[in-house]
Design a protein that fits this description.
single chain, 339 residues, alpha+beta, Elongation Factor Tu (Ef-tu), domain 3, 6-stranded antiparallel barrel, 4-stranded antiparallel β-sheet, 5 helices, disordered N terminus
């Protein structure tokens, strides 16, 4: 009697347990089916390669150390090639220029003196000596002629005739010597002296040109069109030789740079076109052409996570230029390439 009474209560409980087990089994089957379907039909997410935009930066510097007197531009200004950017003053360079110009004046004066030849008074004195020597030749010649005639007539001795001949020869020699002195005075300095004086003038000119070339950098000008990216010193500060004064961005020369693992290079070949996305420009998508690929070296190597079955992968720098001009693209903006 007791079994008969308990069986009606046990049957509903067993039915509920069976229903629960069946429901759990169905849910498990559904989850397995969904997992299989997801594995089979869901696509693998794209690999993202992130880079950034860049542009050519030119550092403006000069050869003149001195004090910054005036800066004519500010950061962010657009400039054209030839615009004046900064004025640097150097009192030392000014003093060097005065010294060099003084040396040039001295060298020119010496050269003019050499070119002008001997002073007129010395030349005139040499002419007088020549005239005196000519007079001596005339007198001694007449004397020698008379003595020769008298010797032939037997009036005087041969010794007297020889003495007159010696005096005449001496007068001729003196005349030649005086004429040589006159020629030397008229012709002036020797050829070597003239060349030496001219060379000193050239050296002095070179000194002046050297200082003037330094002073040309008193005013630094923009070498090309661009935008002032940064200004380093303030007005009245001292700057040394070759110190950068400011940097200039050539916004017309822009590119994008990616650092990628070498196994991704198949999708980024040299000269190939890729599609990139610029998040800062409302996720704008543009085409870019790859023009540069370079190995970054052993310091930029991706290390394998497993001791076996894996290998180290090197990193390459890839540069590309957008096919279309994008004025809004600024250096430093992120760019994304979906593999």
């Amino acid at each position: 009697m007791s079994d008969t009474k308990n069986s009606p209560a046990a049957n509903p409980e067993q039915r509920e347990n069976k229903i629960l087990m069946v429901a759990m089994g169905v849910m498990l089957v559904i989850c397995i089916v969904l997992a299989i379907l997801g594995f089979c039909f869901l696509n693998k997410p794209k690999e993202i390669v992130e880079g950034q935009a860049d542009a050519t930066s030119i550092r403006i510097s000069g050869k003149l150390p001195g004090r910054v007197m005036k800066i004519y531009v500010h950061e962010g200004d657009q400039v054209k090639a030839g615009d004046t950017l900064v004025h640097i003053h150097s009192s030392l360079a000014d003093a060097k220029l005065m010294q060099a110009e003084g040396m040039e004046t001295v060298a020119r004066t010496q050269n003019q003196k050499v070119d002008a030849g001997t002073r007129k008074q010395i030349v005139q004195a040499a002419r007088d000596l020549v005239s005196q020597a000519e007079a001596g030749v005339d007198i001694t010649k007449k004397t020698y002629t008379r003595m020769e005639n008298l010797f032939k007539e037997g009036v005087i001795s041969e010794q007297k005739r020889d003495e007159a001949k010696a005096a005449y020869d001496a007068a001729v020699a003196a005349h030649k010597a005086a004429q040589s002195q006159l020629d030397l005075a008229v012709s002036g300095a020797q050829k070597e002296d003239k060349e030496s004086a001219a060379a000193l003038v050239d050296v002095a000119k070179g000194g002046v040109a050297e200082v003037q070339s330094l002073l040309e950098d008193q005013y630094l000008i923009a070498p090309c069109d661009g935008q002032i990216d940064a200004v380093y010193p303030e007005e009245s500060e001292l700057v040394s030789l070759g110190a950068p004064i400011m940097s200039l961005l050539k916004l017309k020369d822009k590119w994008v740079t990616f650092n990628v693992r070498e196994e991704l290079l198949n999708d980024m070949p040299m000269g190939g076109e890729i599609e990139i996305m610029i998040p800062a420009l409302d996720q704008k998508k543009v085409k870019a052409k790859i023009y540069y690929i370079r190995d970054l070296g052993s310091y930029a190597t991706w290390q394998a996570t497993k001791a076996t079955g894996q290998w180290d992968s090197k990193t390459f720098e890839v540069k590309a230029r957008t096919i279309d001009t994008i004025p809004e693209l600024r250096p430093g903006m992120s760019v994304v390439y979906f593999k």
